[in-house]
């Protein structure tokens, strides 16, 4: 109960003021900038883990030695969560100033005006001399440069020599047909069983869209062209998934075991002796395998037709700048440093792939796995073809759908025909959205 | 000061006090008393204090719901403008999306099996706690604790570790020669595992059951005992009817709650809904459609189907409750 008129007025004003303050507090976002004359704060986001976070801390510390007036707020998430967050931010124009960026999303973000046109900064802020023209072209969509590739990677077949030795099996030599590789996996799994060890030769390769792409490219086709049209039909996909039957019948690791260790793979859980993947995954594999493992082997993946140009160099990641950044000049300084500085190369090694910039590559101590990756990429030069078109809008979700259907096949909850139908239905939605 | 009150006869205070909202006053001619200026100011102050909630309610609940209703009839990928497509999202859901139908199926199993088992466990433990007072505070807290932390990320992680291959549960079963290779990756066992996790969090309904049990007059049990009723008969003829309003309340709440399962499924499957889509519950699939696949229009349609289904189930429960819920003073 109010005691007086003054008290009543005071209470009313307090209520309205409190509402106003709450509203203003809610509205206030602020970048934490100290003004255009003072230090500038940039938000930088990447996907990765604690290991990569430490590397970025080191890289940003080196950046701040050179640019003490640019403060960098760093944040990171796992890969799926990173993109979920970016997608929400993109609807409100709140993307971070500088971002580690995946090739799969480059077209989607650039065509929707969310990324800064880097063209005016090439050679003027972004040092392009140490980067090969072909690698610079990777970040171009519709004749405009939106991203700079930090590094390249290529598809490879990793093997674990320690596991192979423990079961007395010989490594796969590389190349050969997909049937050859399947036979080797079966033989390795059998050898492990004979040695009484719960180890398998490999994982069903038909669960990865990249292996399908490799087979399509060997036949002169592609996954999707620039116009977003698929380069395969239902029969192609059915034939591909049917190649996984021996794996599902016991040659490879059972899908249930993989579900138990997910999000790790069979390879970095020391369950499988081989895995087809990108060559920059080696450092992560060794980290996850633990101290007992110091060495990995890289060989060429199987090939559908000898002499085919089915492999290609892909950016393992790019760096981009938000179109809405309030500090494009400073953002360019940061991007250039992350792409070209030798200190960054020294901090990362090949964690982000083999550095694309010569100056950054000079900072990398190429020993052990780093040297192996470089040698591997050189060794496949005769198998490297032109890179495919920049991935279509929605490619990221199709890649994930492919992986999920692959696991469903492995678990036996869908047939190959159902899997094909599901993928084409989903593809139809994505392409026509 | 203009005094209208002096111009219009005011009914005697006793009459005014006797009038209740909705009742007509004696004589019918008397006008309601004019609102006093002080009361109006109180209203302004009241609305002032309410304003933050009102802003939140309309800005964060009603507004988004209306936008979501519109988006349910569009194709919207978060990047380009929504494209109106009529009821295509709803048609696709029921005719062209096997993953959706599977998601509906496993959610229905979770609700239909998990909720009754959870309520039975809650009632059973509540009756045990009600039986003896000694140490009941400790046991009440101990049994309630899982509900407090049940939806947390840490519990889901621990649950995953417990039921994983070579985890404590799997190792325990191995001792008896039962080798399942873990529950987390097993298509047949992950559903029971999720239901066990839900049942384990029975603390909240248990506390409500306990409060209800304490309200049942002891004389009723004594009278039933004198009449020769055994324990089961007393439970069936005294406990259940007297507790029926509480059972109804818990049933309604837990059913709605079960439809909303998300966090545990997300953590245990690492967001994948696996193995084989067996943890791809409705809300998790909805989330993936919205934020992983960028099909916000489709996800909105899914959300509205869920709202309608839950509303229908709540309505049916209310209607059927007339036949089995007994309130004090009820003639039933």
From TrEMBL, chain A:
Alphabetical list of Pfam families matching this protein: SBP_bac_1
InterPro entries linked: Bact_solute-bd_prot1, SBP
Tree of life domain: Bacteria
Listed Gene3D superfamilies: Periplasmic binding protein-like II
Signal peptide: 1-28
Keyword Signal annotated: yes
Keywords of this entry: Signal, Sugar transport, Transport
PANTHER family: ARABINOSE-BINDING PROTEIN-RELATED, DIACETYLCHITOBIOSE BINDING PROTEIN DASA
Protein name: Multiple sugar transport system substrate-binding protein
Species annotation: Diaminobutyricimonas aerilata
Automatic annotation (TrEMBL), chain B:
Transmembrane annotation, as ranges: 44-73, 108-131, 143-163, 189-213, 243-268, 296-318
Annotated localization: Cell membrane
Domain (ABC transmembrane type-1): residue spans on this chain: 104-317
PROSITE patterns membership: ABC_TM1
Keywords: Cell membrane, Membrane, Sugar transport, Transmembrane, Transmembrane helix, Transport
Main location: membrane
Any one Gene Ontology BP term: transmembrane transport
Name of the protein in its database record: Multiple sugar transport system permease protein
């Amino acid at each position: 109960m109010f005691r007086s008129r003054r008290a009543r007025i005071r209470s009313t004003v307090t209520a309205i003021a409190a509402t106003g303050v709450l509203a203003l507090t809610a509205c206030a976002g602020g970048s934490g900038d100290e003004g255009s004359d003072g230090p500038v704060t940039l938000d930088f986001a990447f996907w990765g883990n604690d290991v990569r976070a430490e590397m970025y801390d080191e890289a940003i510390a080196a950046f701040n030695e050179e640019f003490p007036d640019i403060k960098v707020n760093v944040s990171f998430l796992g890969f799926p969560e990173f993109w979920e967050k970016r997608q929400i931010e993109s609807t409100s124009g709140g993307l971070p100033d500088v971002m580690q960026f995946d090739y799969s999303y480059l077209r989607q973000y650039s065509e929707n005006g969310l990324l800064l046109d880097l063209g005016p900064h090439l050679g003027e802020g972004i040092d392009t001399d140490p980067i090969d023209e072909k690698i610079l072209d990777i970040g171009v969509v519709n004749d405009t440069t939106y991203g700079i590739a930090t590094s390249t990677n290529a598809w490879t077949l990793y093997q674990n020599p320690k596991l192979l030795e423990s079961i007395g099996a010989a490594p796969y030599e590389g190349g050969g047909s997909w049937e050859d590789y399947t036979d080797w996996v079966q033989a390795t799994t059998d050898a492990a069983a004979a040695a009484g060890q719960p180890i398998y030769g490999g994982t069903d390769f038909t669960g990865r869209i990249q292996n399908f792409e490799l087979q399509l490219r060997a036949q002169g086709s592609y996954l999707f062209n620039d116009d977003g049209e698929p380069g395969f039909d239902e029969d192609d996909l059915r034939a591909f998934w049917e190649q996984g039957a021996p794996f599902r019948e016991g040659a490879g690791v059972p899908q249930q075991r993989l579900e138990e260790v997910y999000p790790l793979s069979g390879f970095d859980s020391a369950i499988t002796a081989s895995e087809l993947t990108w060559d920059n995954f080696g450092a992560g594999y060794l980290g996850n395998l633990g101290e007992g493992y110091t060495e990995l082997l890289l060989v060429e993946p199987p090939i559908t037709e000898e002499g085919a140009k089915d492999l290609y160099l892909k950016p393992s990641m790019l760096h981009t700048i938000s179109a809405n950044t309030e500090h494009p000049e400073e953002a360019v300084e940061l991007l250039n440093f992350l792409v070209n500085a030798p200190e960054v190369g020294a901090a990362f090694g090949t964690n982000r792939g083999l550095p694309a910039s010569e100056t950054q590559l000079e900072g990398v101590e190429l020993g052990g796995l780093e040297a192996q990756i470089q040698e591997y990429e050189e060794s496949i030069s005769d198998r490297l073809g032109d890179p495919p078109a920049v991935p279509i809008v929605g490619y990221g979700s199709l890649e994930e759908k492919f992986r999920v259907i692959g696991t469903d096949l492995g678990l036996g909850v869908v047939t190959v025909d159902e899997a094909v139908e599901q993928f084409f239905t989903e593809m139809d939605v994505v392409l026509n959205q | 000061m203009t005094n209208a009150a002096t111009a219009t006869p005011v009914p005697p205070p006793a009459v005014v006090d006797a009038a209740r909202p909705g009742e007509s006053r004696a004589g019918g001619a008397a006008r309601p008393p004019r609102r006093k200026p002080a009361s109006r100011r109180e209203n302004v102050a009241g609305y002032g204090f309410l304003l933050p909630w009102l802003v939140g309610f309309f800005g964060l609940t009603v507004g988004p719901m209306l936008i979501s209703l519109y988006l349910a009839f569009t194709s919207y990928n978060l990047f380009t403008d929504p494209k109106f497509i009529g009821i295509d999202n709803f048609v696709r859901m029921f005719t062209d999306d096997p993953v959706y139908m599977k998601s509906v199926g496993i959610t229905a199993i979770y609700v239909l099996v998990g909720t009754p088992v959870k309520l039975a466990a809650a009632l059973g433990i509540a009756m045990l706690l009600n039986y003896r007072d000694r140490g009941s505070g400790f046991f009440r807290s101990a049994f309630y604790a899982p509900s407090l932390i049940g939806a947390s990320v840490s519990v889901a992680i621990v649950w995953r570790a417990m039921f994983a291959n070579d985890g404590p549960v799997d190792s325990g079963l191995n001792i008896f020669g039962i080798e399942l290779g873990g529950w987390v990756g097993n298509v047949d066992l992950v559903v029971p595992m999720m239901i066990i996790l839900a049942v384990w969090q029975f603390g909240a309904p248990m506390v409500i059951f306990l409060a209800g049990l304490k309200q049942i007059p002891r004389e009723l049990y004594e009278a039933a005992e004198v009449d020769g009723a055994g324990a089961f008969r007393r439970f069936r003829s005294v406990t259940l009817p007297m507790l029926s309003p509480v059972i109804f309340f818990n049933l309604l709440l837990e059913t709605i709650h079960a439809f909303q399962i998300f966090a545990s499924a997300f953590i245990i499957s690492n967001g994948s809904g696996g193995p084989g889509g067996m943890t791809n519950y409705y809300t998790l699939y909805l989330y993936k459609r919205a934020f992983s696949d960028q099909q916000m229009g489709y996800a909105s349609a899914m959300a509205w189907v869920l709202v309608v289904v839950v509303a229908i189930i709540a309505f049916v429960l209310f209607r059927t409750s007339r036949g089995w819920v007994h309130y004090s003073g009820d003639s039933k």
